[in-house]
Amino acid sequence: MPSKSSPRSLPKARARAAVNIRRLRTAQGLSQEELAEVAEFHRTYVSQLERCVTNISIDGLERLAQALGVDIVELLQPPA
User: Fold this and answer.
1) How many CA atoms, within 13 angstroms, populate the side-chain half-sphere of residue 17?
2) Cα–Cα distance between 37 and 6 in angstroms, integer?
């Protein structure tokens, strides 16, 4: 049976989401303020998420995924 990465070796979900949100946002040429407006968040909240300062609910993660045009799973993928 192929070995899988131990869950302990992966970055925490919050850190993965932070990296992916910033990566997708900048790839689309969006500012934090623009992403926040589309997802109906405050700009400072998006900043806190990208800096891994605060948690986000599943519903909030889904709103960000929709605003970025991706599946929510993409926000939780390990960074490449």
Assistant:
1) 23
2) 37
User: Could you tell me what percent of the chain has a pLDDT over 90?
Assistant: 84
Residues 15 and 1: their CA atoms lie apart, in Å, by: 29
Please give the C-alpha separations between residue 18 and each of 3, 4, 7, 13, in angstroms, as whole numbers: 27, 23, 18, 9
Provide the residue type at 22 as one letter: R
Q: For residue 52, give the DSSP letter.
A: T
The tokens 């919050």 sit on which residue?
14
Prediction pTM value: 0.85
29-40 confidence digits (pLDDT tens): 999 999 999 999
C-alpha to C-alpha distance for 77 and 47, rounded to whole angstroms: 20
